[in-house]
């Protein structure tokens, strides 16, 4: 078992599963799916599974590892021994970070050791995955979002469908990419709070999530 989950870990796991999709896209898909309140398994929706609380915000009970088959529309995907628990833990850690009031959630993207062009492509893929995850999760209530959330959602759509332009100013490119990634993170958190926790506010508060591994 991993002590933490990072971009390289997820990339290696996807390679083991012979899935030709980036770790950024998969993480974005999971986050979008969770934000939309999508079903983590066949028998209960995220709203129905809401049963635990962390930092004052109700968070979903343990999801199952087959979320990856759902968000990638790979329903015949077979998981090797040991992979299921890793994916389950990864989903739990992601949900926990989304629910934390400290805003420790981060996009799962390549680190600074990767080329800037690779990192910019990964951000585009993350945003594309996030939007796809929202759709798969059943989100169709954009009109009910706040004005700020609607504008943020539209900006994510622009990032997802537009190649991020890089010029000869390396420092400026780094700053611009960092700002776009921060914007995507804040928008995802805002959408999570406005969509996924709406039903939870009407439910009684229960026990906190158990300690679990963290994303880095």
- What's the number of domains? 1
Topology, number of strands: 4
Succession of helices and strands? EHHHEEHHHHHE
Query: Which fold name corresponds to the CATH topology?
Result: Four Helix Bundle (Hemerythrin (Met), subunit A)
By helix and strand content, what is the structural category? mainly alpha
Query: What's the CATH class label?
Result: Mainly Alpha
User: Biggest sheet: strands, sense, closure?
Assistant: 2 strands, parallel
Describe this structure in words.
It is a single chain. The strands form 2 sheets. The protein has a two-stranded parallel ribbon with strand order 1-4. It has a two-stranded antiparallel sheet with strand order 2-3. The chain is built from 8 helices and 4 strands; from the N terminus they run E-H-H-H-E-E-H-H-H-H-H-E. Residues 42-63 have low confidence and may be disordered. The chain has helices at residues 7-16, 23-35, 46-49, 67-71, 83-99, 116-136, 147-161, 170-196, and strands at residues 4-5, 50-54, 57-60, 214-215. The protein is mainly alpha-helical and 216 residues long. The longest helix is centred in the last third of the chain and has 27 residues, at 170-196. The two termini are 15 Å apart. It has a single domain, classed as YgfB uncharacterised protein family PF03695 (Four Helix Bundle (Hemerythrin (Met), subunit A)).
